[in-house]
Design a protein that fits this description.
about 50% helix, mainly alpha, flat, about 500 residues, single chain
Amino acid sequence: MQENPKLNKKILQEELAVSQLTGVRKAWNTDTVASGLSPSKLANVLSSANEGNTIDYLTLAEEMEEREPHYGSVLRTRKLAIEGLPRTVVANGEVSEEIVEAVQKLVDDSAFDALIAGLIDGLGKGYAAVEIQWDENFTPVSYQWRDPRYFQFAKDNAYKLLLRDNDNKDGKALPAYKFVVHFPKLKSGIPIRGGLARMAALSYMCKTYALTDWMAFCEVFGMPIRVGKYDNGASDNDKAILKKAVTYIGTDAAAIIPESMSLEFIETNSKGGENLYQNLANWLDKQMSKAVLGQTMTADDGSSQSQANVHNEVRLDLLRADAKQLAATINQQLIKPFVNFHFGEQKSYPQLSFYISEEEDLTALVDGVAKLVPLGLKVPQGFLRSKLGIPEPQEEEELLTGAVSNQSILKQDLNADLNTFKAVNKVEVESVEESDPDEENFIDLTQKAIEELVEKLQKAQSWQELAELLNSSTLNTDDLTDALALAGVKAFTDGAVDGAH
């Protein structure tokens, strides 16, 4: 353990941003902004946030995730896309294996998932803060997401986050190494103006109006217009009776009116009005999808499988940027201090990295390999297994095999017989560095004879036909016999000469 005089071990082990029954960090925040949201109210909320008064904006951002299913869904999709990425630790520069292993253990710990989940909450709100609970050995034991309303920005610095405090209205500085604060850079400008909730707020408000009017429309849609008629001499009491009858008949389907009065039902012939609100709601959903996911194809348009492969959930460039920024925050604010605590300051530090796989056309890959391997291309089996997601077969595991051609069967049988002959006679085949004309001639003759035989055997459609062809086929073995005789004499001569030496 490397001692650091600036470290306050007690503070690192305490919980600082805890909730309270009363005060600036309420445990139960019942305030609402989304209820009764109007254009003027929304403008005031966003304007106040620009001036550093962020409570109402952060409350609205929280309510939008809870109240609007589409916004909550697409935002959760973008968050989960990051959470689901494989993560590894890469040695950056000259880093000892011991340090890399220690950091890898830190990243692999199950508690680390809470850190990632807490930090990516900043995508919607503009920033997120996670408090680290260190043990006495300066190792993180837990990561606690803290409500962004527990923090405020410095009055003179819109990029400096402070802890809200009952005794200091200007806020308290965050202790070193105690918090990991993530500011997603979705746009240039101050962090509080960079959250996705700000971009989606107008669509959220408009959709709220659309749904309210749609429900009112659905309540009376298809019902005829009820018109009550009374004589010129009707009294106010008679008019009141007729009005009640017109009102009640819509729900009770029954009413009592004087004989001198009448009710008339006028059917509505308007067409297309029932689609107005649905079209508006769908259009607003698409705007939210564009803002959050970068596309609408997988979320709104009912895409085909091929389209979904191109636009898979979150647009790839957005996912890369989110992962890169998140890794940079963790590397700087957690991994670097962790290494310094345990190993002292280093010239270079291990780096957390998120692996993002890209969609590939596996069919084209397999077809290409099948065509190029016979031409001499050497392809590692492990490479194809990794691309296709096929694991290495285990011992005694049943394997899948394809159909085998007659030529392949013959080749396998010949190889088996050759191997048996070698084993029985203890023959060792040595490589021949210099070419032998007689040997080359024998190989050519053998190959030609086998090709003639295989050409006939390929016509077989069953084992019975194969047996008949073998029995009826005759091979021109004259040249082959001469070549074998010559090879035998030569082998005998070579052996005799070697024995003499």
